[in-house]
Write a structure and sequence with these properties.
Length: 113
């Protein structure tokens, strides 16, 4: 039972990335799932979440309108589509599902010119 993030990388400001959170051992549709990020020297910051079953979503003010969280129940994956990236989006991005006590190892996103 685990979560594995992928899709991080280095992009220029204004660029886009899509992060994936691949779940194994449980169905992503059954649980609330979150994206968090943590930059060096800073506290962990909530980014986005998607609820179980009804797919309602929630975003931090800093990413609202630029990021979109979604889930594919057939592939058992949660995504974070990131657009109009800014240098302040640079961080290690993690997914977690609190009800299962699971957190991935993270994927690095770097936004720099």
């Amino acid at each position: 039972v685990q979560l594995v993030e992928s899709g991080g990388g280095s992009v220029q400001p204004g660029g886009s990335l899509v992060l994936s959170c691949i779940a194994s051992g449980f169905d992503v549709i059954d649980y609330v799932m979150n994206w968090y990020r943590q930059a060096p020297g800073k506290e962990r910051q909530f980014v986005a979440s998607i609820s179980a079953y009804d797919f309602s979503t929630r975003y931090s003010d800093s990413v609202k309108g630029r990021f979109t969280v979604s889930r594919d129940k057939d592939k058992n994956v949660m995504y974070l589509q990131m657009r109009s990236l800014k240098p302040e989006d640079t961080a290690q991005y993690y997914c977690d599902t609190p009800a299962r006590g699971l957190k991935g190892h993270g994927t690095q996103v770097t936004v720099s010119s």
